[in-house]
Amino acid sequence: MQFVPWQSIADWKCIACGYCCKLYSVVLKFPEWLRIVKSFGVEKTVAGLNQLYLKRASDGSCVFLCNFGSTYYCGLQNMKPIACKLWPFKVLTEPKYGQARQAAFDYNGMKLFIYADTMCSGLRYGTPTWEFNHITLREFVELAVGIRQTQSKSTSNLAFAYPLQVRRFGIL
Ligand code: SF4
Ligand code: SF4
Q1: Could you list the residue range(s) of the whole structural domain that residue 61 is in?
Q2: Could you give the number of structural domains in the chain?
């Protein structure tokens, strides 16, 4: 994992490549784990020594990952864990990955530091656009501090297949 400060990113849009859902184990908060277990069964999760995770399929991808050809979707949607909602960004109160000035972000007087994981295919590097700075990143911050749950700019807008995906997992 390598992180870059947000001021080196021109823009970010999820292109639904599914790479993140194949690459990492998703850590669950206890309430998230409980909701998922109640809806899908405990077998869709894994208990580690100190943490709870989403189960991964034999190819390493999350068991809730769905696809239409080369376009990937999350089958959890309205139960999507916060770790997934925030990826590829880290919203921190300390400049953990360096370059503090480039990572600094002011949110209504709250001093934060934002970095992005360079493994994400949706990052475009350069000078941040107004929309990325004032709309997209603010949404990530609001998700991170818990004043927002719904996603708009922080997820793929290729959502036309969503109803099919949730049917597959028995929500509808
Ligand atoms: S967040 Fe990034 S890596 Fe994950 S599906 Fe979207 S573009 Fe791909
Ligand atoms: S819960 Fe959804 S977003 Fe998170 S890893 Fe699984 S498929 Fe991807």
Answers
A1: 3-167
A2: 1
CA of 64 to the centre of ligand 2 (A): 6
- Is the shortest distance between the CB of 21 and ligand 2 below 6 Å? yes
Would you say the CB of residue 137 lies under 6 angstroms from ligand 2? no
d(CA 123, CA 158): 17
Q: What ligand has the least distance to the C-alpha of 17?
A: 1
Within a domain: 58 = yes
Closest CA to 34 of 84, 79, 86, 65: 79
Confidence class for position 172, pLDDT limits 50, 70, 90? very low
For 29-76, how does the pLDDT look when each residue is reduced to its tens digit (9 = 90+)? 999 999 999 999 999 999 999 999 999 999 999 999 999 889 999 999
172 in a structural domain: no
Q: Is the CB of 54 under 6 A from ligand 2?
A: yes
Ligand 1: which residues within 6 Å by Cβ? Answer: 14-20, 87-88, 120-122, 156
Report field, pTM of the whole predicted structure over 0.85 = yes
Helix, strand and coil content of the chain, in percent to the nearest 5, comes to 35, 25, 40
Q: Whose CA is nearest to atom 1 of ligand 1?
A: 14
pLDDT of residue 2 exceeding 70, the answer is yes
For residue range 41-51, list pLDDT tens digits in order. 999 999 999 99
Q: Residue 88's closest CA among 118, 132, 46?
A: 118
